Amino acid sequence: MRTLLFIALISLQVSAHADNRLRYEVTITNATPGQAFTPQLIATHARGVALFDIGAPASTGLEILAEGGDTAPLTEALRTTRGVGTLQTVPGLLLPGKSVSVVIETSFFHQHLSIAAMLIPTNDTYVAVSGLRLPAFGEETVQALAYDAGTEANDQNCRNIPGPRCGGEGYSPGPNDGDEGFVHVSNGFHALSPLVDGDVLAPAHYDWRNPVAIVMVKRLR
């Protein structure tokens, strides 16, 4: 009898733990006319955790994501950060006008959402949602801005931009000549004079205005 009671208590604890998991559908829509999003990092976390701070230097993980689209270093840094819950990367490029949806699970201890992905082709611009409170019920839709990591000069030169359009260099450890040195809201592409030894991208094809993405979060459970 005691053995059966013990097993029943364990089953109740496991069931209660499962019931404590919160499930959401996250949909990201690329609202730019000419920029793709690299694989998108999605994180759930407690209040007070931040992927970046506007006006402060970018972390190495954020710099690598913003310059080369690689989410792994920032993911590993967050994995060892207190208060971080679910970490997930949505693979593939998200093209202009397209949407992607993913289901995530989190706990009552991690009810804030952050998202980050590089805009490509750019030097060091990324789209982000920072610390969105997950809805208790129903759904919530927010607009996401583009931010400049401030780690590379915005020369719009394909030599310094990775990806299918340019195929240039991705992450280049800073500081770099011409970088701003701090995270700020991106001001888009500009008309720059072409260089003899490089392909400079024109704003007519690749410029944008904020917001650059629409993010919808829907409570499933």
Structure description:
With 221 residues, the chain is an alpha+beta fold. The protein has one domain (22-219): F-spondin domain (Immunoglobulin-like). The protein has 4 helices and 10 strands. It has helices spanning 2-19, 60-68, 72-79, 203-206, and strands spanning 22-30, 36-37, 40-45, 84-90, 99-106, 112-120, 125-133, 139-148, 184-185, 213-219. Strands 1, 2, 3, 4, 5, 6, 7, 8, 9 and 10 form a 10-stranded antiparallel beta sheet that branches. A hairpin with a 4-residue loop joins strand 6 and strand 7. Helix 2 runs antiparallel to helix 3. The chain is globular, with a radius of gyration of 20 Å.
User: What is the CATH class designation?
Assistant: Mainly Beta
Order of helices and strands: HEEEHHEEEEEEHE
On the 0-100 scale, what is the average pLDDT? 89
Name the poorly predicted regions. 3-17
Q: What is the end-to-end distance? A: 35 Å
Radius of gyration: 20 Å
Largest sheet: 10 strands, antiparallel
Helix content: 10-25%
Our estimate of the beta-strand percent is 25-35%
Structural class: alpha+beta
Number of strands: 10
Q: How many domains in all?
A: 1
Q: Helical region count? A: 4
Label the overall shape: globular
Q: Which CATH-level-2 architecture?
A: Sandwich
Give me the CATH superfamily: F-spondin domain
The CATH topology corresponds to: Immunoglobulin-like
